[in-house]
Design a protein that fits this description.
With about 350 residues, this protein is an alpha/beta fold. It has three domains: about 5-70, no CATH class; about 85-245, P-loop containing nucleotide triphosphate hydrolases (Rossmann fold, 3-Layer(aba) Sandwich), CATH 3.40.50; about 270-345, no CATH class. It has helices spanning about 5-30, 45-50, 65-70, 95-110, 120-135, 145-160, 195-205, 225-245, 275-285, 285-305, 310-345, and strands at about 1-5, 55, 85-90, 115, 140, 165, 180-185, 215-220. Strands 3-8-7-4-6-5 form a six-stranded parallel β-sheet, with helices on both faces. A two-stranded parallel sheet has the order 1-2. Strand 5 (about 140), helix 6 and strand 6 (about 165) form a beta-alpha-beta unit. The longest helix is centred in the C-terminal third of the chain and has 37 residues, at about 310-345.
Amino acid sequence: FIDESHVTIPQLQGMYHGDRSRKETLVEYGFRLPSALDNRPLKFEEFEERVGQVVYVSATPGDYELEKAQGQVAEQIIRPTGLMDPEVEVRPADGQVEDLYWEIKKRAQRGERVLVTTLTKRMAEDLTDYYRERGLKVRYMHSEVDTLERVEILRDLRLGKFDCLIGINLLREGLDLPEVSLVAILDADKEGFLRSERALIQTFGRAARNVNGRVILYADTITQSMARAIQETERRRRIQAEYNRRHGITPETVKKQITDILSSIYEADYFTVPVSEREEAEQLSPKEMRKRIEQLRREMKEAARRLEFERAAEIRDRIKALEERLLQLEVPVEERRLKARRLKRA
């Protein structure tokens, strides 16, 4: 399986050439031996030879995947929640900043969030400053913002600490924000990578987790990319609406728990290594150890009840380590007590 294949495949294709380009310069000027060129990623052709059968997964598959699939494409358009792709509306680019201000304000009053995409970092920052001066709670996010800070920004957006997030190319794949009911795309008619058909569809998808999801494209003309993206979204909406009508489904906003994202190893740049059984045993007093053993026993039984036998075995090993340490601590105490009794008798 290759997930988000429209992004992953170009990355795989570019790995060899990027590595080669960097190392050739180092070898040419004597900073590396020529043998450094042998330590390299696979060429894309070599990768293809090794993988065998592949399933490409993407909301916007690229030309390569479609060609390889030879017509064997399965669409997953229907969502369990009954949610449909967002409505898409095109508005004039003239006066887009003022029009967007009122749209953000309207959503903020309803307790919903807004994502805005611009073409440049400077515009994202200037727009943020302007809206802040007018009383809106807005933040921006682009490539110069640290990874950890990005995660915190997205969490704060969901928690409602601010109402609108302005970005460039980071508000796309994998961003699951059910609270977002509006995605606004400024200068949508400026053809290029950030406004291609696939980029637009991916950006539209950020509003597809909310029952009130809507997309506003600010543009003076409708480009071919815009037209194709809107046409594809409307096609999906028709299929979804018909399915919901036929099965009596009422769309519902995704309900997703807001967790401390930084605690996840998949999202964070680092994670806290759990203490070993030995370290844990050395840090606790005998009284704390007994409490911990009882707690772990309950966790072990619960894990076994849920058929999580590997976790239950790990907990069992921790209990064993704690019991051994507890025995070591308590034996000297008993010996001292026996000595004291003997002295009293003497």
